[in-house]
Design brief:
This protein is of the alpha/beta class and 384 residues long. It has eleven helices and 19 strands. It has a seven-stranded mixed sheet, with helices on both faces. Helix 10 runs parallel beside helix 11. The structure holds S-adenosylmethionine. Pathway: Cofactor biosynthesis; adenosylcobalamin biosynthesis.
């Protein structure tokens, strides 16, 4: 097995030991300053480089940016069965926050690399969380990130070529260059509270919260038990965008936000906007509120991953299905829309299900208990 040492590069001088290796691997800019006659593999394809390293008989110096153990080459080397020694430099994420003078133990770090929806996931994390570092790359450049954040109150700072003479902090439309990391901040949040768990993403401390956890108009709130089943089918998580259409109090939107999803709450009633904002603030989540009647108002929104339809007719459900979310849940107090909704989901290619939920809540009355009936609600859901 080759002896592999991975050196992090943050613009500072590399250790003299790098030049003693019999194989050098790294980006052109990393290897530029290394004076050695050893064979060089200039990194293009990661898999080709790892393959070459694996068959080398001797010592290998791999030079990679920042901390190679953080979204870097160390994972690929270990997967190939190698056992590298790692000499990290300062991660670009740590440097970028340092340049802004900000703490970052409360920041979410997301990689926008990869063709499997990396940029989309990164945008949704930036929509959901107040302090995010995005590892950008080809196909996921800062302007595309900024474009996805339109409609959300965010400031994007691009930190380019950290540690070099060409280092700069710019906006997403400025003269940024590769490589760069984008720091995305909610306008009103620079420093989060001191915590004990790094990373900014954490599961909610409870869900399917009681109705009195939300400001709402009488009876215009999805009951906790119904919300529980709806959330199970919506499956909100970091990286997703959820629409809550006919949001009312925004109880579903807020709960999805508590699971780390980006959320848009839509309601035609302007009074609902205030309720949703108050509930979002109360629960410490960021919900974008759109006041207007669906389906028209949905046209300008970014495509959702999951949609809760709490209000609106068949035209609203049809418009939602036209946007192809992976999960849809619609709630109905009346029975008439149920069959057509199930048919519409099935016709749109969803695996469809539904259930009428009617709970009898335990209440105490004069030292005894009775079971008080709540109104039945039918949920119709689809997944694909
Ligand atoms: C039963 S409430 C939803 C309750 C909500 N899920 C909650 O937990 O608070 C229905 C809401 O849908 C809204 N609504 C109905 N039709 C709509 C439409 N076409 N576009 C937007 N909002 C609509 C109403 O204003 C109302 O606030």
């Amino acid at each position: 097995m080759p002896e592999v040492t991975v050196y992090g590069y943050d613009g500072g001088p590399l250790p003299a030991a790098v030049a003693e290796a019999t194989l050098l691997v790294g980006g052109a800019r990393h290897l530029d300053g290394v004076s050695s006659d050893a064979e060089r593999v200039v990194m293009g394809s990661l898999s080709a480089a790892v393959e070459r390293i694996s068959i080398h008989d001797g010592s290998v110096a791999v030079v990679a940016s920042g901390d190679p153990g953080f979204f870097g080459i160390v994972r690929a080397l270990r997967r190939a069965g190698l056992d590298p020694v790692v000499r990290p430099a300062v991660s670009s994420v740590a440097s970028a926050f340092a340049r802004l003078g900000l703490p970052w133990d409360d920041a979410v770090v997301v990689s926008a690399h990869g063709r499997d929806g990396g940029l989309r996931r990164a945008i949704n994390v930036c929509r959901a969380y107040p302090k995010v570092a995005v590892l950008t790359g080809p196909g996921a450049e800062p302007p595309a990130l900024a474009a996805g954040l339109q409609g959300w109150q965010r400031r994007v700072v691009v930190a380019s070529q950290l540690g070099t003479a060409s280092e700069r902090l710019t906006g997403p439309e400025g003269d940024w260059t590769e490589p760069n990391v984008a720091i995305v901040l909610a306008r009103d949040v620079a420093d989060g509270p001191a915590g004990w768990l790094a990373g900014g993403v954490r599961p909610p401390d409870g869900w399917a919260l009681p109705e009195d956890a939300f400001r709402h108009r009488a009876s215009m709130i999805t009951k906790a038990e119904v919300r529980a089943v709806a959330l199970a089918h919506l499956r909100p998580a970091p990286g997703m965008l959820v629409w809550d259409v006919g949001a009312g109090s925004g109880s579903v939107a807020v709960e999805c936000g508590r699971f780390g999803a980006a959320v848009v709450a839509v309601d035609r009633d302007p009074a609902s906007a205030d309720l949703v904002r108050a509930n979002a603030a109360q629960h410490g989540v960021d919900v974008r509120v759109v006041t207007g009647a669906a389906p028209a108002v949905l046209a300008d929104l970014p495509d959702p991953d999951a949609v809760f339809v709490g209000g609106g007719g068949p035209d609203v459900l049809a418009a939602v299905l036209g946007r192809g979310p992976a999960q849809v849940v619609a709630a109905y107090a009346a029975v008439e829309p149920v069959g057509p909704a199930a048919d519409a989901l099935t016709a749109a290619g969803y695996t469809t299900g539904g259930a009428q939920l009617q709970t009898n809540r335990l209440v105490e009355i004069a030292g005894r208990h009775r079971l008080a009936a709540t109104n039945p609600v039918t949920l119709v859901w689809g997944a694909r």
